[in-house]
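Data deposition worksheet. Section B asks for the primary sequence of the deposited chain exactly as it was used as input, without tags or linkers unless they were present during the calculation. Section C holds the resulting structure in token form. Section D is free text for depositor observations; keep each observation to a single sentence. Incomplete worksheets are returned to the depositor.
Section A, Depositor: J.P.
Section B:
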Amino acid sequence: MSVQKLSNLSGVSTSQIHKIKSRENSSTNVEDASRIAGAFGKTVNEFLDNPELKVDIEIAQIVSELTPEERRFLLNAAKAQIASRSKPQD
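Section C:
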């Protein structure tokens, strides 16, 4: 999820999200933390204690570094992987 999209969903400013993301300001107020967690459909406790979320965050960070062409390639590979799950094995 992009910083702008998270800002739009949570109501937390992009500058505050950038500070948190870069650990420039590793603390935030409870209201902002709750809003950010809520943007992911989580409570603050669920958001912080969810190991799967760490993987999702890492994926999002990596994807944000890809070129548009690399993103399309990754998207197509992911779609093919998902589609192969539903095909019967010979």
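Section D:
The chain has a mean pLDDT of 83.
The CA atoms of residues 18 and 33 lie 13 Å apart.
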